[in-house]
């Protein structure tokens, strides 16, 4: 499945 | 972390500090939209739910705690401490017209149909329009205090710098988050009109006064 970007930003 | 994102976060931090200083020094929240601050509080609460579940860095955690703490303190100042100076008549934007479509869109367009991901997407979409009540209030009152203009300039610059951060991360790390980028572009575009007024007026020492 589509890569879910890890939310590492504020 | 890159210089664009760091400058963006610092600009965001500056905006929040400018706002708090304006309220604390003038002991007044005149010209500030409480509704926008409530939307920002919703954005931060929804986005930082992972504050205790996923640790990114000390910096990330400290900034999240600071942003959440200050936005709720701002709401306290507006609706309680300096309530007498809150101009609710001009802060009349119907935020339900923002929250409902944004909530619906978050369900339809997201990276993964999972609760935390949908809530994160909701916070991204909501942030892009959260400033509308504030801009609407300025258009109704026809003018903005200079300190409020500085607040808005710093707040608008933060997401514009994030756009640069995403360009950099795309080329440097291959990182790309379409949802964040599209919402960030919308958010920055909403400030363009204000940026024009800020640069042509405030930078020359004039006050921003829209044709009422």
Automatic annotation (TrEMBL), chain B:
Keywords: Endoplasmic reticulum, ER-Golgi transport, Membrane, Protein transport, Receptor, Transmembrane, Transmembrane helix, Transport
One Pfam family here: ER_lumen_recept
Keyword Membrane among UniProt keywords: yes
GO cellular component: endoplasmic reticulum membrane
Keyword RNA-binding included in the entry's annotation: no
Example GO biological process: protein retention in ER lumen
GO molecular function ontology, one term from the record: ER retention sequence binding
Transmembrane parts of this sequence: 65-82, 94-113, 119-138, 174-199
Localization (cell): Endoplasmic reticulum membrane
Membrane topology of the entry: Multi-pass membrane protein
Family membership noted in the UniProt record: Belongs to the ERD2 family.
Name of the protein in question: ER lumen protein-retaining receptor
Organism encoding this protein: Mytilus galloprovincialis
């Amino acid at each position: 499945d589509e890569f879910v970007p890890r939310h590492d930003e504020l | 972390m890159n210089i664009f994102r760091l400058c963006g976060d610092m600009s965001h931090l500056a905006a929040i500090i400018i706002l708090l200083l304006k309220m604390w020094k003038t002991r007044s929240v005149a010209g500030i939209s409480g509704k926008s601050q409530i939307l920002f509080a919703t954005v931060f609460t929804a986005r930082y739910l992972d504050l205790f579940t996923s640790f990114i860095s000390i910096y990330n955690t400290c900034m999240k705690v600071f942003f959440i703490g200050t936005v709720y303190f701002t709401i306290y100042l507006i609706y309680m401490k300096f309530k007498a100076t809150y101009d609710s008549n001009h802060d009349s934007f119907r935020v339900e017209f923002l929250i409902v479509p944004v909530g619906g869109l978050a369900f339809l367009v997201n990276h993964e149909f999972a609760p935390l991901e949908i809530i994160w997407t909701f916070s991204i979409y909501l942030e892009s329009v959260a400033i509308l009540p504030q801009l609407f209030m300025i258009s109704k009152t026809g003018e903005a205090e200079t300190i409020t203009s500085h607040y808005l300039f710093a707040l608008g610059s933060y997401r514009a710098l994030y756009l640069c951060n995403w360009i950099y991360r795309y080329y440097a790390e291959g990182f790309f988050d379409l949802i964040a980028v599209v919402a960030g572009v919308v958010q920055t575009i909403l400030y363009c009109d204000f940026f024009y007024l800020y640069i042509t007026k405030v930078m020359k020492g004039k006050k921003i006064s829209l044709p009422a």
